[in-house]
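For reproducibility, we list the full input for the magnesium ion complex.
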Amino acid sequence: MSIQLSNITKQFGAFKALDNIHLDIPEGELVALLGPSGCGKTTLLRIIAGLEQADQGQVFLKGDNVTEQPVKNRQIGFVFQHYALFRHMTVFDNIAFGLRVKPRKQRPAETVIKQKVHDLLQLVQLDWLHDRFPDQLSGGQRQRIALARALAVEPSVLLLDEPFGALDASVRKDLRLWLRHLHHELNVTSIFVTHDQEEAMEVASQIVVLNHGKIEQKGTPSEIYDQPHSDFVSRFIGQTNVFKIEDHAHEWLKHTGIIIDEPQGIVAHVRPHNISVEKPSDPAKAPVTLRDWQHLGSLIRLELQRDDQTASPTTIYAEMPNEQFKALALNKGDRVAMRIKHAHWFN
Amino acid sequence: MHVTSSKPLSGNPGVALTDPAWVRWSLVGVSIAVISLFLILPLATVLIEALSKGWQAYASSLTLPDTLAAMRLTLLTAAITVPLTTVFGVSAAWAIARFDFRGKSLLTTLIDLPFSVSPVIAGLIYVLIFGAKGWFGPWLSEHDIKVIFAVPGIVLATLFVTFPFVARELIPLMQEIGHEEEEAALSLGASGWQTFFKVTLPNIKWGLLYGVLLCNARAMGEFGAVSVVSGHIRGLTNTLPLHVEVSYNEYDFVGAFASASVLASLAVLTLIFKTLLEWKQSQDRKA
Amino acid sequence: MPGFRPALGFTLLYLALIVLIPLSAMLLKSLQLTADQFWNILTSKRVLASFEISFGAALLAAGIAAVLGFIIAWTLVRYPFPGKKLFDALIDLPFALPTAVAGIVLATLYEPRGWIGQWLGEVFGLKVAYQPLGIVVALIFIGLPFVVRTIEPVLQEFDSAMEEAAASLGANRWQAFSKVIVPNILPAAITGFALAFARGVGEYGSVIFIAGNMPYVSEVVPLLIITKLEQYDYAGATAIGMTMLVLSFVLLLIINSLQWWVRRRSGQL
Ligand SMILES: Nc1ncnc2c1ncn2[C@@H]1O[C@H](COP(=O)(O)OP(=O)(O)OP(=O)(O)O)[C@@H](O)[C@H]1O
Ligand SMILES: [Mg+2]
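The corresponding predicted structure, in tokenized form, follows.
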């Protein structure tokens, strides 16, 4: 089911948590709502769910205006940051809850409920835990039960607030992939909140970057990464080297062959992999020194330093594949040539 | 599982938590009605009845010799019981919160025992021991010592009913604070008493005061237990609450409510101090 | 850490002197009675009636206090309203107010010519003072703060995300309340009920003024004990006192196990 938000504004006292949000999410997408802490992600998600009322604007689900509808009529599945499992119910009863509170006429028979709960438990691979209480589960298990509970009512939209936020790193990695596969299988329009850009890139088909209650950019992970619309997005997503033209006199950049194009702004953001490093033809004229490097799996990250800047040396990061680095056979302290293959310009 | 709320508790709750206005207002209405009817109205009634014949009558009934004697006895009883209960509370808390020993949970249960015993039984047990036909009754009357229908009996009964008040506040508090600071003081060469006065006491002072306050309110206000052992001798063994009863039963309503107004002010003062102490304690926790 | 022996020693000595020895005096005294004597005392009509009145009134009052206390705790935690802080502080009044004062005030208010009694009589034809109902009123007064103060913190700690989860799963407000909130608050409510009940059974001061104290009708057990004592019938007083003590312990035990069962059923153990 598609989701449309128009002109959503939400204020807490004098503080504007959401400012005029417009958003269109087509059916079947898995969208990450990404942004720094306090930027309004949870608030937006809760407004879509109907847990919070917007001061202005409308929410449309599948084209229907549901702005005035209470949460229970919106047919959404919500997974809470701390799961909010019912502590006094077993895993089974938790998942069955949504089916059991349906109006009598729509309520399935108990045998049907039983079947359905076990199907869901199998889907999240936790059937053996059905008679446990939430307090007796691990974090990752609770997470999956919360998801199964939300899925039991066959929601047309699935909303997840920092679904992996409370888990440790390794469980988190597993669950990310699992969520992605689950989405493939069920194809429910889903939005999940995260402030981890890596997580957003890895899981989502679309990313919405939020900052200070405003949408900075919306697009596929590669669009967001390769064509950041703003200085904020470029800094927030992945690593970026920032060259201010005032500091890095353009003359110098051009002279050393670092930049070939004419400048298109006053700030250049350069991804590490967009910097190529080579052995210089004349070491004496080479502009930067290789200080150090780190292994990042298949990539090597190089730390470079400009030679003409001694007072407060800024470090420039570059990345290249392992083999290529080996082939260059560089040592710490070597002077190297450097070229920016592609930059994003901002004013 | 430690559950934290997913959003700040301050501010307005989400729409899903907002009850319909009619529900809100009728529940608030019920609460306010119950509190007014059961708590505010009685307080007001004490004053109104006490002053029903004017200030003159109020003042003169408060200065009657019997009333003054009852006040003195109440103060005396509190002056003896509160320190004893406090010392007991501190030493029990020290033993229970600072050491492990067999039977600790039994001891904790026994300390709470007087809470679940009817005050009348608290009086009864002392009568059985010291009363005219009690275990020591004959021996006591031979030696001309009066316990029952005298001040010692009143003090004993009050000691029984106030028994857990201080210990009950201090034990959980000291357990929560832990003993690291005290160990630090000891390792720096402080003596046991120095450690207690310079480290323990400052940490537990609000909780201790809280316990003392409640203990004092109960000591001054106890009725059932004291009623059994007092004998209601005017001017001699009537505490203020007993004096209230006697006056009321003699249809001296102004006198009864005048004494009651003194006790009610004590209760209100207790509530004010209690609120203040709770606030202090929460400030300390935050700090 | 120093001071273990003196602290524990003093604690045990004081406990023995003030609580244990006197209580065992009562036990000894009741053991001196033959089973027949004990039985005769307990099965006299007047004693049976007073037990019925005390336990019945305490049970009813604790039940009513539990409901009213829940509503008060709920509004204090959930809804803003003017004067809330003051109302909250006042809840403890029955803890702090001497029971004799409560007794004469309630009697004055509820007697047929009193402010409330008059109104109840005219509008509902209801008599409260000098009736068993009067005992219930006094015990509600005494029991209320026990319920409010046990439920309030639990309600404050309650994770409201659970309620939102219920709503997002399609539950209406009533279902969220009855299926999610109530089960989580129930153990605390039972505790509050038990405390109010235990206190009510033994309550004397606030009851005797409003009860009328008519044998067979509105005479409570504590009063009967005092009456026996005044007649120097130590045996009678002891038998009744002992029975009351045992009965209230048994009832508390039952309530505690009920609570244990509720907690267990709801995975809180
Ligand atoms: N009920 C409320 N009352 C007042 N302010 C609120 C309330 N809920 C949220 N806010 C404020 O609105 C802003 C956005 O909050 P929100 O919870 O949406 O942030 P978030 O993006 O989810 O942050 P995080 O990543 O830390 O969870 C924050 O500054 C927060 O302090
Ligand atoms: Mg959030």
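Residues A 12, 17, 35, 37-43, 195; B 7-8, 11 surround adenosine-5'-triphosphate (ligand 1) (CB under 6 Å). The longest helix of chain A spans residues 169-186. Both points were considered when choosing residues for closer inspection.
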